[in-house]
Amino acid sequence: MARSSQKATQAIALMKESAPDKSLDLQFLQLDLQSFASVVQAVEQFKVKESNLDILINNAGVSCLFRQEQAPNGDGYETQWQTNYLSPFLLIKLLLPTLSSTAAKKKTQSPVRIVNVSSDAAFVPITPDLDLDNPNLESTTGFLAAWKRYCHSKLAIVLLTHHLHNLFTRDALAIKTYALHPGFVETKLQALDPTLLGKIVKFSVKWGLVPGKLGREDGARTTLACATSNDE
Known about the structure:
There is one protein chain. The protein has seven helices and three strands; from the N terminus they run ααβαβαβααα. It starts with a helix and ends with a helix. The chain is 45% helix and 7% strand. The chain is globular and about 50 Å long. The model has no long low-confidence stretch (mean pLDDT 86). It has a three-stranded parallel sheet, sandwiched between helices. It is mostly helical.
């Protein structure tokens, strides 16, 4: 699932070309996390094609939008909150019947997994307490406002992951949940932050001034480990 059909098609072609026998079965489903309707449509299309789901990875996200922008679809939520938390939450909820039925079939085999890519930003000093009554953080102002909303959304997905773990443990479902910090990965995540702080972060990541900066391939390793490693 991805928003851009062009980028998804290119990625699929590259993965198929890299496979030894060129026989990977990869398919593209349109999904725009800034639209609840798009999430619902993507799940409906998935269920037509598949009856099992072994691994769900919520990887997409946006960061540090300078203005308190609402997602352009009219759902009424600030873009970071909807993209980083609400839409992944909805995706999990809608796919949960499929995840649960898959887990029931697997029995003693490797468990079904939900992997949520979050960030250590969930735990930095500027992160607000979780506010579900005012998730857009409308009264938050100042040059750190965009960062605070980003941190807030990342805290929410961590807490959701923990809550799901407790529910699945209580109900003895063979579904494991993971929330992870991928590291400081060189991407375009901060590209939309025009503030001085945003420019400093972007420059530091680009030129390797951040300790432990990772390239994109290395940045995916933690996610893949959570999705595929043997817990035993």
